[in-house]
Specification:
Blueprint: E1 4-5, E2 8-11, E3 17-23, E4 33-40, E5 48-56, E6 68-77, E7 80-88, E8 105-114, E9 121-131, E10 139-143, E11 146-151, E12 154-157
Parallel strand pairs: 1-9, 2-9
Antiparallel strand pairs: 3-7, 4-5, 4-8, 6-7, 8-9, 10-11, 11-12
Length: about 160
């Protein structure tokens, strides 16, 4: 498993909630595990090294209060499991700041998964951009009188 390229971004003060599908691994099985690590990008002075933040698996009971990865479900199609996990970051204001306040900063992330009885393998990787400032405005669309927030014109959120 070489991993899929997954560029991610989150607002510094409000964090991120994102659904990720991992094909071929049942993360609900006893002994399975997952973690996402955020590190400095190679072009920053301390590129690589120890992770700045690690998000591990979070139990259902803690999902609203503890940042991390939560297994939302597992679907099996033709014998191949697909794990649906939610990444929730909350406030990420402790991550590095860019040289110029008000600018975004780009870090790197890796998502590692481990099947029961297996070893950790990289399932996803890519840039993790921390967007500066206050929460970024979305595009407000009304549908039948209900307000829907569409971030970047995609990912319709209906709650």
């Amino acid at each position: 498993m070489s991993g899929s390229y997954m560029p991610l971004s989150a607002d510094r003060w409000t964090g991120l909630v994102m659904c990720i599908r991992v094909i071929g691994v049942d993360l609900s099985a006893v002994g399975a595990d997952a973690k996402m690590q955020i590190r400095s990008a190679a072009n920053l002075p301390d590129g690589g090294g120890e992770p700045l933040r690690t998000f591990g698996l979070v139990a259902d009971a803690d999902v609203e209060t503890v940042p991390g990865l939560n297994v939302a479900g597992v679907h099996v199609d033709a014998g191949v499991p697909t794990s649906v996990i939610n990444l929730r970051t909350f406030d990420i204001s402790d991550l590095p700041w860019p040289d110029e306040r008000g600018d975004d900063v780009t870090l790197e992330h890796d998502l590692h998964v481990k099947a029961a009885g297996g070893v950790f393998q990289r399932a996803g990787y890519g840039p993790f951009t921390v967007r500066a400032g206050v929460a970024r405005p979305g595009v407000l669309i009304t549908e039948g009188g209900d307000a829907i927030l569409a971030e970047d014109g995609s990912n319709i959120i209906t709650e």
